[in-house]
Amino acid sequence: MNTTSHDDVRALDAADPLATLRERFELPDGLIYLDGNSLGPMAKSIPAEMARAVSEEWGQGLISSWNDAGWWELPMALGRKLGPLLGAGGGQVVVSDSTSVNIYKAVQAGLAMRSERSVIVTEAGGFPTDLYITEGAMQGRPNLTRRLLGENGAALDDVLDGDVAVVLLSHVDYRTGELFDMAAITRQVQAAGAIMIWDLCHSAGIVPVALDDCNVDLAIGCTYKYLNGGPGSQSWVYAAARHHGKIRQPLSGWWGHAAPFEFEQAYRPEPGIKAFLCGSQAILGMRALSAALDVMDGVDLAQVRAKSMQLTDLFMALVDQECASHGFGHFSPRDAAKRGSQVALTHEDGYAIMQALISRGVVGDFRMPNILRFGFAPLYISHEDVWNAVAILKDIMETEMWREPKFSVCSAVT
Ligand SMILES: Cc1ncc(COP(=O)(O)O)c(C=O)c1O
Fold this sequence. Notes:
Layout: H1 6-14, E1 25-26, E2 32-33, E3 42-43, H2 46-60, H3 65-68, H4 74-86, E4 93-95, H5 99-113, E5 119-123, H6 128-138, E6 145-149, H7 156-159, E7 164-170, H8 182-191, E8 195-199, E9 218-221, E10 236-239, H9 283-296, H10 301-323, E11 329-330, E12 342-346, H11 350-359, E13 362-363, E14 365-367, E15 371-375, H12 383-399
Parallel strand pairs: 2-13, 5-6, 5-7, 7-8, 8-9
Antiparallel strand pairs: 1-3, 4-10, 9-10, 11-12, 12-15, 14-15
Helix pairs in contact: 2-9, 4-9, 5-6, 10-12
This protein binds pyridoxal-5'-phosphate.
Pyridoxal-5'-phosphate binds next to α5 and α6.
């Protein structure tokens, strides 16, 4: 096996075209932040933008800011900023509400487009909200059933047939980091006559995505991970233009009405992507997201992807090289082309090890039952960070620091 030296790692940083982007983020000195797959850091431009939104737009402009500061149009304006990152042509993306709420809208919209069919497909090991929301979508509709990919080994072939209305899948698995083939899976699902909905929470902003080219029907994703929109920042929805005019989603609030200021008695959906809007949006949160998306302006996602693959490859190789005797298992695909931007390790003492790492300034997270997740965001993580993170991991294992009782105390958020 080839070994990797500290000099090799420094050479990778010296050749990194994205190295200077770290300066755009507020990151505490010495912290190695490997949790951008959960919550991205704050861009340095955000406090001033927020101060302006609060003091000028709300403080001075008051209600006139709905027009004058572009608040009313913000969901669509943010959709325009996101479009290029998602491979989505104009007018197909809108920002509003939470990811969970948008999954609900998308699943129901898909079901409405295939009303003669009665089956929802999602993944047994998917992010729980995808499971819970599809369960909720079936409530009060005894004609609907659900099939779970991966349950008892079921593959896509096994669950697809002429009864399937919608298929909801994650582009990148939230635990293993596995990246799925969007084009091939979408083709297979549509060949069975179903509507394809992608959950892009773990790929938007980090993996080049081609929603239009893959002929995707509907997609949703969050903005607080690799898009750095801030805690609980609003989610986005994509609907292919060919479906516009036919979208019916059940949260038929006034913002999705074709003429909201006519105050009509009956709901009449806006013909385009705005049909996914529901009611008034948290504008201050959207202003932070807007500033965060500006940081991505001009950033080449192909370069981001290339560095992301290098960082995750390097981390895996260094864990093998430095920590081979410490009982870690690899839970992520070894082939970088089949991986998003996170690496998951398994260890039976994973929770305590992660808490010990965090106390030493290496922040990742833990997922039940034994998964240590490390996210690598190329905009602010260097190869040297990866080197240092593995050196600290090795030290924690060799000194058995993780055995200190305080590291086994569970917090609400892991
Ligand atoms: C794949 C996936 N879908 C959805 C969500 C979250 O939904 P929400 O933004 O509503 O909390 C997450 C959160 O981590 C996720 O990983």
